Structures are given as C-alpha cells and as structure tokens.
Please model this.
Amino acid sequence: MTEETIRRTPGTPCWVSLMVHGLGATQDFYGALFGWKFVRARGAERLGPYVRGYLDGEEVAGIGQLAPERRLPLSWTTYLATDDADATAEAIRCYGGTVGVGPLDTGGDGRLALVSDPAGAVFGIWQARARRGTAVAVPGAHGTPVRNELLIRETSWVSAFYRSVFGYDLEPTGRDGEDTLTLRLDGRAVATLHGAGEGPRPVRGAHWMTYFEVDDTDAAARLVAELGGHVIDPPWDTPTGRVATVADPEGAVFGVVRSAAG
Model:
C-alpha cells in the first residue's frame, strides 16, 4: 500500500519505531493495549523483519525485530521529518551529533538515518517518498503517538544543536524554575526538551520518549501490568493531562496520557 506524500515541515516528529527481540509477542502486547492491527512491511525490511501498526486502517507506528545476537537497550525511536536526509545527516555531524546508520533507502517508501545528538540521545530522520509517516483517521485517538519529549539532565546541553539543525524556535515553558523548553516550528509546538537536573531519580542517559494517547490513563497502566509489562511511574496529573510512565515486557519505556483536551 502507498499513500500520497504530504510534505511535513522539517523537524516535525513524523514516526515512531521500536526494535525488539520477540516480534510476535510485542505485537500481541501493543495490539491488546492500543488496538493496533499489524501488517508486514516488505520494503522496510532492509534492517530485518518489520511490521507497521494500524488504527482504523491508518499507519501509527513501526516495530522491527533485532538479530538474536544484538543485545541493546530497547526504546521507542522518534523520527523527525526532513526534505533531504543526506544534508540533514551532514548538518548533524557538523553540529556535534553522530550518524549511526544511513542515510539509506527503504524501497520507495523514503530515506532514513539513525542518529544521536551531542548528549547521546538517539533519534531518526525521515525523508518521505511514498510514506509520510504516522497518519491516523482520528488524531488523538486511543493508541496514537501524541507527544515526543527529550529527557536530559540540562537542556542547555543540546538546545543549540536542535535549533541549528532543524531551525526550531526555543520557548522556555517550565514552571517554578523547571528546566523545560518547547520546540516550535512556524509557531506550532512540536516537541519538548525536559531537563531533569540532579534529582533523586537520575535520568538514564539522554533519551527521547514517546507518549501515546489513551482513553483512561489509570486503566491503561493496569492493562500494561496485566499484559506482562510494568508501571514505572503510576498515573499523575499534569497541566497537559494525566500521565503514566510504563514499560513493555521487553523493557522499552514509553508514556501513556489522557490529554487535558482529549
């Protein structure tokens, strides 16, 4: 299946993807939690078996299978849109980041690279061709990725990097001295940088985190545990919604949120 490519402003989060060891079991987990249906992605298998999750017939996220010998920490990867993956990869190198994989073509779907910022946080860049990324029939529906946040000790580490590579406007949005920056493109908030500081729970290395919309945060957290995952931070209320931090059975951490406007 292909779809008409709709250009997204470079720097806009456009896709989330997860690499795991047990592809079948992981599909069962996320299918039960979010209601995703899965389709094998033939053109995207250059890095191994890969499936796309769908809601109401529209693409939401991807899950791939790691080779058995690759024992890496598992995490959801945020992809940022670009008009030119090669030029963006070169800019990432120039401003102190690292290009780990690519850029490479995934059939006719697009061109991607896996990269990291100067603090070591991994993310992807995606140059769309036949596929533009996440596209759901009902934005903000249960199971939709709705928020992407970089967690780091201090935002000053990397804010200049992201502004230089993607042209973000940086807006301080923390309350009561909180170290939080909102990344904006054309006046629209697209992601957040959050500095955790030297608190009692240190950040497990700089990393991007994906939050998925749910109908009921408390019920979703309970279901995560019932399905073999675990709850890291029980549900709590924030100005933007009720949030919980959870992990799937293989340990990939993500957030579930009932947005305040949802």
About this structure: The CA atoms of residues 237 and 243 lie 6 Å apart. The helical segments are 23-34, 85-94, 159-166, 217-226. The longest helix spans residues 23-34. The longest strand covers residues 230-238.
